Amino acid sequence: TERTYIMIKPDGVQRGHVGEIISRFEKKGMVLKALKTYQCPKAVAEEHYKDLSSKPFFGDLVNYICSGPVVAMIWEGPGVVKSARLLIGATNPLESAPGTIRGDLAVEVGRNVIHGSDSVESAEREIELWFGDKAGV
Ligand code: ATP
Ligand code: MG
C-alpha cells in the first residue's frame, strides 16, 4: 500500500494543532503507521529539503524546521501521497483553500504548519531519512 511522510512542523506543535491535524487524516480514512516527536539536527533538515538548497530562504527554512520538536509520521492508504497534499493545501497559506490545513491554520509561507511528500519516490526517501531501519514499518 502507498505510504507518505507527513510532518507537523514546530509551529504546528507549539500552537497545539497536533490533535486536529491527526484527526483530519484519520477522518479521511488514512492509516497511521508510525509517529514520533523529534528535535531534528540541522543535517537532517538540510537533507530533507536538499532540492531547495539553492533557494534564498533555505537557511531560514532549516532553522525553522529545527526550531522545536516536530511530529514525524508515516500514513498509509490508496493514493495517500496526493490525497495528503490535497488535505494540506497550497504551499503559501494565503493561496491555500479554506478547508485545507494550511488554509485554515496558517498565514505565512515560512510558518506553514505541515509537510507532506510530493511523490511516491520522495515519500520513500523521506521515510528512510526520518525513520530509518528502526521504525519497524
Ligand atoms: P513542504 O515540502 O514543506 O511540504 P511544499 O511541498 O508545499 O512544502 P516546497 O516548494 O517543497 O513546498 O517548499 C518547502 C518549504 O519551504 C515550504 O513548505 C515553506 O515552508 C518553505 N518555502 C517555500 N517557498 C518559500 C518562500 N518563497 N519563502 C519562504 N519559505 C518558503
Ligand atoms: Mg515540498
Describe this structure in words.
There is one protein chain. The chain has 137 residues and is of the alpha+beta class. Helices cover 42% and strands 18% of the residues. It has a 4-stranded antiparallel β-sheet with strand order 2-3-1-4. The radius of gyration is 14 Å and the shape is globular. The relative contact order is 0.25. The mean pLDDT is 96. The site of adenosine-5'-triphosphate has 10 residues, from strand 4.
In this entry the ligands are: adenosine-5'-triphosphate, magnesium ion
What is the N-to-C succession of helices and strands?
EHHEHHEHHEH
For the report, how would you describe the main beta sheet?
4 strands, antiparallel
Broad structural category: alpha+beta
Terminal Cα separation, in Å? 12 Å
> Any low-confidence stretches, pLDDT <50, length ≥5?
none
Q: What share of residues is helical?
A: 40-55%
Mean pLDDT: 96
Report Rg: 14 Å
Q: What overall form do the CA principal axes indicate?
A: globular
Widest beta sheet: strand line-up: 2-3-1-4
- Provide the β-strand percentage band: 15-25%
Count the helices. How many?
7
Number of strands: 4
Catalytic activity: a 2'-deoxyribonucleoside 5'-diphosphate + ATP = a 2'-deoxyribonucleoside 5'-triphosphate + ADP; a ribonucleoside 5'-diphosphate + ATP = a ribonucleoside 5'-triphosphate + ADP
EC number: 2.7.4.6
Cofactor: Mg(2+)
Protein name: Nucleoside diphosphate kinase
